[in-house]
Amino acid sequence: MSWLKILYPTAIRKAIASGIAYPCCAKCKAQTLSTLIALCLTGFTQKAFAESFDREASQFLSGPGTAIYLGTGVVLPLLQDGKPGIQRSIRTFDSLSTSTLLCISLKELTQVKRPDSDSRDSFPSCHATAVFAVAAMQSHYHPKSAIFWYSGASLIAYSRLNLNRHRITEVLAGAALGYLTAKLELSQKRGLILFPLISSDENGDSIVGFQVMGSL
Length: 216
Known about the structure:
This protein has helices at residues 4-7, 10-21, 26-80, 85-110, 126-141, 146-162, 168-187, and strands spanning 206-207, 210-211. It is mainly alpha-helical. Strand 1 and strand 2 (210-211) form a beta hairpin.
């Protein structure tokens, strides 16, 4: 009865084993067996429910959850950061766009087969790339919120593993690509591919790359 170890504590296992091995009468043995069957069914039902919920949660995180996370990361600075918010939103979107393009390019170059299909676009995980690019940007602007951004990014990255869409190496590579792209974005005064829209000073006003100097 080694499988009982997975489902029930030691005390319950001992009680069940005693009831079957040393029944005081046929009626007691029948009752013990009925209890055992009921417990088994309950345990398997709970396990199946947990697995179903886990998969549904991963599907949400990989789909709508990712869109909500990325959208929040790009738009939130506009709502809470005041004057620098515009530049921070643009820079976050720049990091997201650049890292995603790099990820897609790597997929085309590597042609790694996915673990769950014949598609050859598994390396690296663009979900992980995108969310960690946003997490790194927002953690830079709001260090106190870093744990929330990185926790959300990690959950989304895990969902790709849980759904068997990627291998661990592909998720880690994607996360590293997103993080490093964000750091590169922050090291450049005018950003990366959206440099015409980015001011060298996030506190300055800019219109399509040109700072407004005084009044016009």
